[in-house]
Design a protein that fits this description.
473 residues, mainly alpha, two-stranded antiparallel sheet, 52% helix, binds zinc ion
């Protein structure tokens, strides 16, 4: 079924959020009609971030199933930290009728994570203003994330579970005020978002090797190559102790009870570990720099281990150095930030930089192309993939037919927008004539007249019969 463009699933929207809108659009009082038609079942639970039966949904929507899996769930993040379950998880999320939490081997309950749909009140208000409906974002569903990094406020949560809403397609979003989040929670949520983006674009990486390299820089590897595990556990538990606000208090106290670092670091004791454990550990180990998960970008200097305690504002430092005309090499050496990151900051701030070298992998390039194909705005692609806007533009220009395709999408969106506006005007003003309606929305009227006259006339009230001149009062 093809939905109007404005009702189509939005970039990074959760599957649940989308289904709620779709159900509302269909206008049925229960969700069983939609469930029956899409999933061939009357009752379905939609998991906030690991939903299943995506093949059915993709088929119903006539979209690519992998794009639902990658862009609208946390599949990539779970697979990234546990490559051994990658294939099985993908298969189950596409076709299984059952929950997949058992194959991830990592039930949330052990971490005291509240199970539900999280949402940012500012993001939701913006989406209502822009599209007329609330949109829940997949990055906010990352376990342990409690803040929206874009708006720096605390996320709110709708509880799921048997007494919650997970068999219902309703969104009861409270109207309460947004609450400012603390700096550490914001940094952690930004870090988690960046890791999610990297996980979508990267092949399997050797996580233990990456961890070992950073541990070595921090002095946690002996000269014979062993990890100083008890020293590390002491340090990390004191970090968890001090930084209470990075995530939920219950989660932190659950994590403090038992050390979890061994399985993350040693091959022999390895079993699937919850992504939140990886995220918290790497946030500290990498000093908040998610780029370290991309092993192809060499890091030249060791970053001070105290960064987590006193966060450095790298963006300002880099902008300052770029303005002073310092070279990429020097900035890279002085900040420890990758060239990608420096280029991004330079391009986001309209500053010139000295290199045009492409450091992005083919996987990143393909991700840009895929998002561009979906008609996502250049700025948003750049932001989501942590690349420069210039790079996105270059990829779009250099991919045959992509610019033309995007033009066509924009045009379709415009026509559909015009249709929506006229329809709204007619519904809200049933007594107005065609001429009066045209005066209220001239541009939309003209656009629709030009491109879909039949549709325009089907929306408008019947034309008035012409009055003979001698009957005029
Ligand atoms: Zn937000």
């Amino acid at each position: 079924m093809k939905l109007p463009i404005l009702l189509a699933i939005q970039p990074n929207e959760t599957i649940f959020s989308f289904l709620v809108r779709w159900n509302k659009y269909l206008g049925f009082s229960t969700e069983s009609y939609l469930f029956k038609n899409v999933f061939d079942k009357n009752r379905v639970r939609i998991h906030p971030y690991l939903p299943t039966q995506l093949s059915n949904l993709a088929e119903a929507l006539e979209v690519e199933k992998n794009s639902l899996l990658i862009d609208h769930t946390l599949y990539s993040l779970f697979a990234f930290f546990n490559p051994s379950i990658r294939e099985k998880l993908m298969k189950k999320m596409l076709v299984s009728q059952h929950t997949v939490t058992n194959i991830t081997g990592i039930p949330s309950a052990k971490l005291s994570l509240t199970f539900g749909h999280k949402w940012c009140p500012v993001c939701v208000a913006e989406s209502i203003k822009q599209f007329g409906f609330p949109i829940l974002k997949i990055e906010h569903q990352i376990p342990g994330v409690i803040a929206c990094s874009a708006h720096q406020v605390l996320l709110k949560q709708i509880i799921c579970g048997d007494n919650g809403i997970d068999r219902k397609l309703i969104l009861a979003l409270s109207n309460s005020q947004s609450q400012k989040a603390n700096q550490l929670a914001i940094q952690f949520s930004q870090f988690a978002l960046e890791v999610l983006i990297i996980s979508r674009a990267s092949e399997i990486t050797d996580l233990r090797k990456i961890y070992r390299e950073q541990l070595s820089k921090k002095g946690y590897i002996t000269k014979h190559g062993y990890i100083r595990i008890s020293m590390l556990e002491d340090k990390f538990s004191s970090i968890l102790e001090e930084h209470l606000n990075v995530t939920d208090h219950h989660v932190l106290s659950a994590l403090r009870k038992k050390s979890f670092l061994g399985p993350l670091l040693r091959e022999k004791t390895s079993f699937p570990a919850h992504p939140l454990k990886h995220l918290l550990f790497s946030f500290w180990l990498f000093d908040g720099n998610a780029d370290l998960f991309i092993p192809s970008i060499p890091k030249k200097i060791e970053i001070s281990p105290s960064k987590l305690e006193k966060p450095r504002n790298f963006d300002d430092e880099i902008i300052c150095m770029l303005r002073e005309g310092k070279s990429m090499n020097l900035i890279e050496a002085q900040t420890g930030k990758s060239r990608c990151a420096i280029r991004r900051i330079a391009e986001l701030n309209g500053l010139k930089h000295a290199t045009n070298e492409m450091h992005y992998s083919n996987a990143i390039k393909r991700a840009v192309q895929r998002k561009a194909l979906m008609g996502i705005h250049r700025n948003k692609i750049a932001q989501e993939l942590s690349v420069g806007i210039g790079y996105v533009e270059q990829v779009i220009c250099n991919t045959p037919n992509l610019s033309e395709w995007r033009k066509q999408l924009r045009h379709q969106a415009k026509v559909s927008n015009a249709e929506k506006t006229i329809q709204m005007l007619v519904t809200n003003n049933p007594s107005l004539t065609r001429t009066q309606l045209r005066a209220l929305a001239e541009a939309e009227y003209a656009l629709l007249y030009l491109h879909d006259k039949e549709r325009l006339f089907s929306l408008l009230p019947k034309p008035l019969k012409p009055t003979p001149p001698n009957c005029k009062k």
